[in-house]
Amino acid sequence: MSVLSAIAVVSLLVWVWLLLGQGLFWRTDQRLPPHPEPQEWPDAVVVVPARDEAGVLPASLPSLLAQEYPGRASIVLVDDGSTDGTGALALALAEKHGGLPLRVLRPGEPEPGWTGKLWALRHGIAQARSADADPEYLLLTDADIAHAPDSLRTLVAAARANRLDLVSQMARLRIAGFWERLVVPAFVWFFCQLYPFRWVNRPAARTAAAAGGCVLLSTAAVDRAGLPDAVRGAVIDDVSLARAVKRSGGRIWLGLAGGVISVRPYPRLADLWRMVARSAYAQLRYSPLLLAGTVPGLLLVYAVPSVALAAGIVGGDPLAAAAGGAAKAIMIVTYLPMLRYYRCSPLLALALPPTALLYLGMTVDSAVQHYRGRGAAWKGRVYARPGTAPDGG
């Protein structure tokens, strides 16, 4: 057996394990569980952290104002140090569209040890739970997320019917230009690979995750897990929040969304690069050892099958060609459901290896920026190390 054949066989074994042993991560059938409506609807408050979001609010906030919720509900938008008139625009949109009552908060700059979004959520949750309105549920949603009119209703019904403390839906990200079609489905597919939804949704499993764009959270779980203070410095705040809820005995659920849509455009590769690189090294827990293992690991999984198939055919190595071809076939088959979910051409599955190499470059760049002191930069704030104070506006 040649060296190339041996490496190709290892790659194939990894793909067989991913296909069968990683929680069927490639399936896209994890949708909201059955949710008969409650006889009495609990109070709910929508909390929206927003920093310089005037460009997307006209496409997202009206969908929240128009929520068809049978119980008492309201919206708290936290203007997190915006310089583009985000807060004033939110009030103007509320006056124009009507619907759910809206309050706008401006809490000021984060205290040391807090990331900006969690600082905003801290104040938004406190306002939501004020003496005049202590709701049973909080919907934490980003300013770039548009919701179907029944979104809050179905989330609360699913949480009540299934006794869930946290219900999160992965928003359908925008797909328009070439780079979005190439990168976005792979981004969600990689997330599902890291956090298989079936494992997340199993109470006995340790795996925990959420999608920060849409998280319905019970206030009982907030108190039990000490949120958001318990995760105040987290860069990947949604996963950290879900872990805190699950560790404290709460039941969580994560799935793909139908009526929850991101309206933020990522027209250029540079835009997508920044989105991924901002937290990629944090995903590796800022560990040089994990990074050193990730680079050859991604090459083994995503580059070797194509190389082994081509080199095996050209060089007359049938075992390398067969193993590489089988691994590549599994790769394509597991990616097709996500492409179907995003209504993309199945031919894009052939581009998964170079797309994975793009993600490898983003991850390495994330580590480089971390060691240069730029860390998780977002809208003027920089988190150079876990738990450090932000630098900049």
Automatic annotation (TrEMBL):
Pfam families: Glycos_transf_2 (PF00535). Residues 46-180 form the Glycosyltransferase 2-like domain. It comes from the Bacteria. One of its GO terms (molecular function) is transferase activity. The keyword Transferase applies. Keywords: Transferase. InterPro entries: Glyco_trans_2-like, Glyco_trans_2_hopen-assoc_HpnB, Nucleotide-diphossugar_trans. PANTHER family: GLYCOSYLTRANSFERASE, SLR1566 PROTEIN. This is Glycosyl transferase family 2. The lineage of its organism: Bacteria, Bacillati, Actinomycetota, Actinomycetes, Kitasatosporales.
